[in-house]
């Protein structure tokens, strides 16, 4: 039961460079790019030549054929890192690379640009190469590509504006002739007093809201996504503003469903590990939500991929890419770092799954053990909590986001003295509560992320929240009432105690009374 895949079906796994973004083909097969490239930290090392290959799946992504040669990048003294790809409505294959000449993040020296090649199809005919002079500066990761309803290709990037500039800006490059020529939009800033190299407007994604109106969602270090809107099909963008979508310092992914809904995947996670004192690099779980009103509200915010026993506390389930599988389902490709196999940055492990986003419109769940995260393996009859690393016992689950709602659960055993129930609008990993893992100055930031309830006994726990108040009943008796100050709604519950004891959660049901929650996005 305690598998990595909470609400999606596993298809395949491979190294990050052997299975990149997947693209459905008209004949029903799937296509992906495999790349052989330099490590960008050692640009002048082997391989001297860097290649692109194509791979095909005939069984819906469960197995992949041998790589077939497509292209050799002409650069010899730069790392050409696959960044993303797309197949446009005319069948052209577009491949983008991070062209990195020199990288020293510690000194904020970031020197590079964008490499680009277009083929007539995924078979690799007639390669057309360009160094993308319209945006000749170091770029961060590419997270999606968009062809608008009128045929414009819009490709979002984030870049520092100069080699020694420690703040990123977001921008797009766009083409009206299917990649023959490209232009760049204005830069979009996210202004803050953070000085880390990843501050600013980082790793944007874009989606078309209606003809000529595009939405950009931007990764930040400020605890939420920010957004910008273009009213001229991506050529110019307005000033960025914050959303109400809680997110750690990590990017997301958009897919427009055939029925018009938008499927969003992202790390609805906060807390440790943190940079400095104020912002989060936590990415232990990946979440999904849907919007039926062009991102003005969302439903769901539930776990798709999660941390499991044996994963490290600094696990990354991150960098999602989604695309349609059919009229109802979506392919989700993501990668893992610091999992059980101890994958590392630049040797990431890629995962391909498939899911039906309809479950995200549910307003009730019951015994959703697949969404529980716990250090101790468990089955279909509940979750066991015992202290493990650093004397912490902790289990956490997601449920349909509710501006108001209720929870009924059963906890069996003798209640440990310091047992707490934690409620939040994001996933909080056990790393937040391992006292030896962090300096005390983090406490002020962590404590603002959740609400704490303290039951007096095991048994039947009833929790309700409405009109800014959270209440707890234990075995039919009203015990606690606290103000809901840390968030506008709830979608995660954790049970925590330290030192000694054992507790088993044998029943859990949650209901969202107001399941649509406002994103703060206006256009």
Briefly note the structural class of the backbone: mainly beta
Chain-averaged pLDDT: 92
Low-pLDDT segments: none
Q: What's the CATH class of the domain at 369-518, please?
A: Mainly Beta
Distance between the ends: 43 Å
From the coordinates shown, what is the CATH architecture of the domain at 369-518?
A: Sandwich
Helicity level: under 10%
State the CATH topology of the domain at 369-518.
Answer: Jelly Rolls
**What Rg is obtained from the alpha carbons, in whole angstroms?**
23 Å
Biggest sheet architecture:
7 strands, antiparallel
Number of helices: 1
Classify the beta-strand content into a percent band.
over 45%
Q: How many extended strands?
A: 42
Layout of secondary structure:
Layout: E1 9-15, E2 22-24, E3 30-36, E4 50-57, E5 68-73, E6 79-87, E7 93-104, E8 109-119, E9 128-130, E10 146-147, E11 153-160, E12 167-175, E13 183-184, E14 199-200, E15 202-210, E16 213-219, E17 224-230, E18 241-246, E19 253-256, E20 262-266, E21 269-270, E22 274-275, E23 279-280, E24 286-291, E25 297-305, E26 316-324, E27 330-337, E28 349-355, E29 364-366, E30 373-374, E31 383-385, E32 392-402, E33 405-412, E34 420-424, E35 427-428, H1 443-446, E36 451-453, E37 459-466, E38 469-474, E39 477-483, E40 490-498, E41 503-512, E42 517-518
Parallel strand pairs: 12-14, 21-35
Antiparallel strand pairs: 1-28, 2-3, 3-4, 4-5, 6-7, 7-8, 8-9, 10-11, 11-12, 12-13, 15-16, 16-17, 17-18, 19-20, 20-24, 22-23, 24-25, 25-42, 26-27, 27-28, 29-41, 30-32, 31-41, 32-40, 33-37, 33-41, 34-36, 34-40, 37-38, 38-39
